[in-house]
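Good morning,

Attaching, inline, the backbone tokens for the sequence recovery test we're adding to the shared suite. The designed sequence is right after.
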């Protein structure tokens, strides 16, 4: 049999547990007591004060192969087996995780199988999943609640019932009853009696307040071993007898907080109002009262309780009725999807500060998957397109590799050592980002900032995995924190330079677009001061305010939010337009840059030169593309940069189907006269019919379609197109090659790449 003893911290659980174990041993049980408190003092009386090495302390010093269960198993009074789970120092790590680890060790080595009875002495309340382990069905057959008449002790007992209810619902009955440990407070008998009746549990025994317990403590022995004090011993012998006789077990029926306060602190006048709670196994007020009456000898009289159970009260935890569950359901419906965790987003963004060391404070697996996210686009661009993205291909990214020991005892020592070594290398900055595990165990990563030096600031970002938000939230946290910690607000604008804001880290065109934009700026004698945040150095970010103008790479919601934040925080000035796509947008963008920096003449020269090249290329492409027809399916995005260029090359759009999943006003084109038929609400069943009806030469989409037959060529559009004057020409040139060579589309080249790299 396995017994769990729960109650508020300081209520006397360890004393009760030790004496109950001693009484069971006297009754012939071969019993194992397991202390589940980090203070590891549960078995102290049974071992006459001898220290028992805790399971967790032992596990820190040995490998799995070297484990010897005898090292943590002590023999106490009358052969009682004594084990202490142990735990971390106060304020660090996760004691609940320590309980889980200790139980896994005991199960692994079959320690409990050596005994016929196991008693768990559990810390305080059911405060987390770790301390709730002994409540799980595979561990405890019977659960005793130790309480006094103090309100907070009864409040804790009620919370424990809630925890049991979460595990058992109404199907299983495992609560053995209440062990009343008297404290001599006002109306104590009445309070305990009313609570017991309301939750439908018997008061199994009343432990009297007696100096005998203090004497036993001083002599470091259980009360059961102390000479004399027969009345006190009788309480535990009676409780052991109830266990031997197979005392009835009851359903956990916790009270609402309001009901608890009324019943315990009130005068009991509303007791009948809470009657749905009160008839657990037919426990009635008169029967419970019997547990408080005393015989002439002073020994408490124990009353057995029998009867029938009633249905759940609508307010009982575990019931699906009531507003709380409706609220949860409503919140779940409104919750937005998560595209990765905040830890992942913050790490992916932070590595773009290319002279910084980024330390992921979390398990190795979290760091591994994040590293794949960081490096995959860099490897793809390097191998397939020859584009080098240094921060993605070779990020300065490390991990503290939190393991089992750190999850229990805390990982700050490990983190501080890793940060100290990183600072010694004198990078531009050391950035520490926390994961779920380090957040849950409460590691205060801000302590690492104390290791900052004048050359190397240590910057912490408490992303805490997905606890703090999703992938985009992590990016925002990283951008905000790096700006606040690194940007020097005293720097004044004055140079002919710009900052580039919010380049899309997942775009295949990020490196290409930057080179195009930088090339145009260079031709006007304007240089890039800082890329916030894309392959920038710490010094560049520190001098961020040196640039009088800021350029958005995109005008999505995240970029506009960043723009507003920088305007408010630092008074930054922005060009309204994002990176230009296509000839018309590039003209507008370049003229505004020229006007801002008094380079209008240079801007006009560049536009004229680009126009000559553009028109010459269009004339060449027209020879192949003239008369070709296009059927386009797309998301709701501005495609005039392509539509106008295709029309200029002599191509015709037969039909455009728009998937407007954002439900925003239609913005695909301002030139519907160039587009034939437009269906603003794309139905996927329409596509094959339209292909059959229109018989296009080219089927174009944001995604790849399955080839229907060989009657048309198929190609895909980039989700984030190339910037600059010649955005459309790149695509038209590819179409001309396809029509000239009979290829099926660039996406078909995947088979060639697979053979190149993996065959």
């Amino acid at each position: 049999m396995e017994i769990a003893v729960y109650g508020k911290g300081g209520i006397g659980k360890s004393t009760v547990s030790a004496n109950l174990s001693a009484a069971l041993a006297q009754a012939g049980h071969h019993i194992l007591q397991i202390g589940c408190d980090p203070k590891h003092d549960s078995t102290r009386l049974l071992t006459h004060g001898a220290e028992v090495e805790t399971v967790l302390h032992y596990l820190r010093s040995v490998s799995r192969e070297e484990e010897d269960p005898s090292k943590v198993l002590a023999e106490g009074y009358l052969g009682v087996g004594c084990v202490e789970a142990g735990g971390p120092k106060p304020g660090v790590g996760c004691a609940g995780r320590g309980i889980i680890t200790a139980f896994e060790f005991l199960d692994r080595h079959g320690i409990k199988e050596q005994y016929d009875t196991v008693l768990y002495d559990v810390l305080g309340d059911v405060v987390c999943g770790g301390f709730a382990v002994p409540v799980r069905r595979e561990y405890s057959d019977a659960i005793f609640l130790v309480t006094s008449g103090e309100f907070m002790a009864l409040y804790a007992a009620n919370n424990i019932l809630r925890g049991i209810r979460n595990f058992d619902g109404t199907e299983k009955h495992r609560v053995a009853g209440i062990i009343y440990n008297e404290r001599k407070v006002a109306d104590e008998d009445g309070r305990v009696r009313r609570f017991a009746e309301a939750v439908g549990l018997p008061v199994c025994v009343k432990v009297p307040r007696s100096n005998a317990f203090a004497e036993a403590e001083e002599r470091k022995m259980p009360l059961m071993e102390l000479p004399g004090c027969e009345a006190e011993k009788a309480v535990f012998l009676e409780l052991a007898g109830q266990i031997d006789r197979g005392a009835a077990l009851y359903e956990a029926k916790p009270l609402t907080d309001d009901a608890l306060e009324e019943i315990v602190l009130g005068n009991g006048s509303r007791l009948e109002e809470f009657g749905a709670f009160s008839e657990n196994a037919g426990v009635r007020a008169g029967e419970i009262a019997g547990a408080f009456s005393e015989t002439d000898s002073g020994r408490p009289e124990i009353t057995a309780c029998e009867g029938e159970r009633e249905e759940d009260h609508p307010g009982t935890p575990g019931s699906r009725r009531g507003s709380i569950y409706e609220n949860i359901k409503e919140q779940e419906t409104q919750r937005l999807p998560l595209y990765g965790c905040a830890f992942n987003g913050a790490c992916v963004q932070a590595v773009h500060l290319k002279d910084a060391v980024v330390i992921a404070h979390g398990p190795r697996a979290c760091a591994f998957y994040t590293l794949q996210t960081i490096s995959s686009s860099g490897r793809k661009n390097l191998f397939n397109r020859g584009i080098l993205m240094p921060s993605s291909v070779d990020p300065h990214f490390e991990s503290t590799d939190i393991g089992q020991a750190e999850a229990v005892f805390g990982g700050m020592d490990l983190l501080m050592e890793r940060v100290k070594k990183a600072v010694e290398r004198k990078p531009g900055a050391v950035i520490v980002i926390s994961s779920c595990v380090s957040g849950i165990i409460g590691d205060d990563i801000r302590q690492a900032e104390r290791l900052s030096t004048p050359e190397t600031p240590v910057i912490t970002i408490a992303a805490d995995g997905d606890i703090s938000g999703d992938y985009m939230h992590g990016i925002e946290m990283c951008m905000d924190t790096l700006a606040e910690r690194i940007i020097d607000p005293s720097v004044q604008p004055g140079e002919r330079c710009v900052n580039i804001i919010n380049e899309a880290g997942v775009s295949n065109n990020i490196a290409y677009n930057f080179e195009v934009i930088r090339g145009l700026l260079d031709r006007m004698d304007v240089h890039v001061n800082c890329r916030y945040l894309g392959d920038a150095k710490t010094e560049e970010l520190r001098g961020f305010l040196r640039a009088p103008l800021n350029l958005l790479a995109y005008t999505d919601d995240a970029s506009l939010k960043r723009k507003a934040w920088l305007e408010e925080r630092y008074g930054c000035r922005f060009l309204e337009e994002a990176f230009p796509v296509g000839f018309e947008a590039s003209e507008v963008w370049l003229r505004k840059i020229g006007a801002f920096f008094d380079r209008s003449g240079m801007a006009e020269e560049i536009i004229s030169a680009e126009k000559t090249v553009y028109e010459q290329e269009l004339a060449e492409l027209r020879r192949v593309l003239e008369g070709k027809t296009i059927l386009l399916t797309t998301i709701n995005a501005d495609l005039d940069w392509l539509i106008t260029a295709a029309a200029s090359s002599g191509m015709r759009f037969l039909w455009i189907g728009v998937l407007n999943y954002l439900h925003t006003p239609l913005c695909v084109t301002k030139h519907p006269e160039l587009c034939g038929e437009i269906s603003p609400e794309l139905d996927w069943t329409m596509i094959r019919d339209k292909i059959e009806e229109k018989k296009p030469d080219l089927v174009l989409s944001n995604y790849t379609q399955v080839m229907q037959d060989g009657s048309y060529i198929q190609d895909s559009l980039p989700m984030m197109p190339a910037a600059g004057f010649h955005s459309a020409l790149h695509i038209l040139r590819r179409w001309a090659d396809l029509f000239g060579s009979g290829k099926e589309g660039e996406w078909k080249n995947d088979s060639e790449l697979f053979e190149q790299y993996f065959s």
